[in-house]
## 1
Amino acid sequence: MPQAQPPTMTTDADAQLIARIRALTTPLAPLPTAVSPRVDPLTGIRAVLFDVYGTLVISGCGDIGLTATDDLPKAFAEAWRAAELDSGALPEGFDAATALKDKIQVDHAASRAAGVDYPEVDIVATWQRLLADLRISADDSRLRRLALEYELRTNPVWPMPGLAAVLATLAARGLVLGLVSNAQFYTPLMLEAFLGRPLAAVGLDPDCCLLSYRQAVAKPSTAIYRPALDALQCRHGIAPGAVLYIGNDIRNDVQPAQALGCRTALFAGDARSLRLREDDPVLRRVVADRVVTELEQLTAQLLPAAPG
């Protein structure tokens, strides 16, 4: 299974995409939930792994790969122009959203047939195959631009309140930080756009940052969590019992992390993305160790500074 690490330096091409992210994103505020926090301190935690969408960033549709707009043709047309692709090359009446969804479903079916429990695509490769079917040629830079522009127009994002300060405080306290998230190539660029620095510079260990498109497997599979936990054990001597995983979804985040021995915190800070899965009788029995409704609760209460 692929386990390539996120880049630790920003290339010129990535810098251009980061500039586009900053240009296309506008402030969002989290929507309150009716969930009460449970943030009494956890002891013995040496590392924190985060989900991204719905936890570290507000997602307009609640998660990656979904859409918060009804005007998908307009979003696609704008993204196509931004990528400097020839609109005349498209078939009349081309439905990009349906074509992309169909291509992803085909890829997922092939991966399941190969034994992957929760498949993930590389969205750039998916766009490339879709355009190849239309006999349209596009280089990697245009494909990445198209994918990024379309995503930002269909799923608005903005950092959760306190994001930068919380990461900085946890890193300063000596905690190892990482990501385990359903994500695409633009996800770390989005975080860099919001944080103003590469992820490694804000304390995120590249070896502990596992993104689904690089692994070809998505949450809730435990397969995406294992490399991060292996890196924590091998590089830092940190066992799963000393790891806190925080995410907004009982099925995708809390259940698999608990199954691997991690402590867990449910992030219930935005009604758009909170997934309690109360209609699933099995998941109703899954209870996170803690419940966080604001990121700042991590540093103020849940993971306080060591005395002295």
## 2
Amino acid sequence: MFKGLFKKSKSTSNSIIAPIDGEIVALEEVPDPVFSQKMMGDGVAIKPTSGKIVAPVDGEVVQVAPTKHAIGIRAEDGTEILIHVGLETVSLNGEGFTVDVNTGDQVSVGQPMLTVNLEYVKENAKDIITPIVITNSNNSDKEYTVTDQKDSKAGETILMTYE
């Protein structure tokens, strides 16, 4: 009758932590329809103020773009997150990016993954705005809530929660 009465219940709520310092903006504000119309999935974007990108969740690196501008991570619960640094940055062919992780690596929240030369990207790409997208959100019954905070601190600020 009292079995399980004093066990701590596991919350179904999960969080995605900011991977970069900057100004948090709605995904709809990204000046690229692939992101703003959520074709790749739900999410949020950050206008970065620093070039250090850290892991937003505990999980596995499932993709590092050959051009180093994007990293995909699968969280322990199966949520797939894409961090896409800037717009039209694929054309930089990796210039201005230093990757610290490889596909298959296990990462923890706050672990450094990528360093970006923001000045170089500002001068040579369309925009430095960085979408953080849940690429499998369209195939999920999870509900996503974006923070109402305006500024992010890498590895600390909760960007999104989901259940």
